[in-house]
Structure formats: structure tokens, C-alpha cells
Structure to design on (167 residues):
């Protein structure tokens, strides 16, 4: 009995050590999958799409250029409630947004938007995910020109450009 109890204790500790990292990895995969889909829609439909980050509730959602009825949403003319918006995607339990930097505007609370355009470009933005209980960070960098991603374990800050970068 003692051997069996010991095996369950070791297995439980191993699983507890593995699950937090997997939750953070799942959050990164889910977020980038949704952003890739948004970029692809923008390119294929030749229209602008947006992602909204809610840093207080640790969730995000995709904005389309369409109304609920399927016609193009007319900015400034149609009521905001008429726009077709996907449901909120919550981050997994224990994972939060630490910050979202959109074109140099760093937010740690509130809501912010990023754009994906028909050429495949995007708002230059960096999303930092955080697990407070384990002090784990993961950063997803969305490159402006291509709308593609770079992944960074831990905190990441882009080095500012200097004259030597353009020689």
C-alpha cells in the first residue's frame, strides 16, 4: 500500500508541474490560431478585420466588417450593436493578459484593438500572457508588415531601432 501511495504522490506532483505550462501553451495556441484565422479572412475577403483585447476580463474577440444581417457594416452610419462580432474567447483559468502593446501604446487594463488588413499586414502589436501563480510569461509578437508571429518564452521587449539598423 505504501508503494502505491508513493506512486500516486509522485504522479500527482508531476501532473501539477506539467498542467500550468500546458495552460499557458494552450492560451498561446488558441490566441494565435484565432489571429491567423482573422488575418486569413482579411486577405481572402479583401476587407479589414479587428481583434479586441479585454485586459480586465482576460478575454478577446474578433470583429468583422459585416453587419449581423450579412451586409457590409457602415462605420459611422450603422449602430455598433448591428456589427457581427464573434463571442468572447476566455483565456484558460490561471492565465491572464499582462499587457498588450499596440504600436507603442502599452495597456495593462481596459480594452484595446488591433487591425488586420487585406494585404496581410496588421497593427504592430505585442501580447504578453502571464500566469501569476507560477510567474510564467509568454510573449506573442505580431509583426506589422506581414501579420505573422514571433514567439518568446518569458517577457520580451523589442529593441528600439537606431541608425545602425539602416546601414
Amino acid at each position: 500500500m505504501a508503494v502505491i501511495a508513493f506512486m500516486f504522490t509522485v504522479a500527482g506532483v508531476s501532473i501539477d508541474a506539467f498542467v500550468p505550462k500546458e495552460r499557458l501553451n494552450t492560451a498561446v495556441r488558441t490566441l494565435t490560431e484565432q489571429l491567423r484565422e482573422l488575418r486569413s479572412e482579411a486577405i481572402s475577403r479583401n476587407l479589414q478585420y479587428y481583434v479586441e483585447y479585454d485586459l480586465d476580463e482576460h478575454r478577446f474577440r474578433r470583429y468583422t466588417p459585416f453587419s449581423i444581417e450579412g451586409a457590409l457594416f457602415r462605420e459611422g452610419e450603422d449602430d455598433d450593436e448591428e456589427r457581427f462580432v464573434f463571442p468572447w474567447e476566455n483565456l484558460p483559468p490561471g492565465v491572464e493578459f499582462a499587457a498588450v502593446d499596440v504600436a507603442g501604446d502599452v495597456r495593462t487594463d481596459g480594452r484595446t484593438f488591433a487591425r488586420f488588413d487585406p494585404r496581410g499586414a496588421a497593427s504592430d502589436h505585442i501580447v504578453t500572457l502571464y500566469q501569476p501563480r507560477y510567474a510564467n510569461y509568454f510573449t506573442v509578437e505580431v509583426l506589422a508588415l506581414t501579420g505573422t508571429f514571433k514567439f518568446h518564452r518569458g517577457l520580451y521587449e523589442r529593441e528600439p531601432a537606431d541608425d545602425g539598423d539602416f546601414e
Summary: The first strand starts at residue 49 and ends at 54. The two ends are 70 Å apart (CA to CA).
